[in-house]
């Protein structure tokens, strides 16, 4: 179960895509959900952080992969087309005489 949860967090994948060697994905999902609700997940994480900090093995380097950070479509650098100034329109006096 722990290996399955570790795999999920390492890959960032959904539980549905869990390899068969870890068992049924639904069981892993339910356990992970229960642990998140009852605070077990936070207690485990806090204990692991404290242990790593005591061993001076904690590295706070942050890496952002640009393949997952996308710019808004308006930030793509497309040129703005200059629109002609709007011309005031006047109503005609009536049908043209002919």
From TrEMBL:
Region span, Disordered: 73-98
InterPro entries: IS402-like_dom, Transposase_6_like
Domain Insertion element IS402-like stretches: 1-45
Protein name: Transposase
Species annotation: Streptomyces maoxianensis
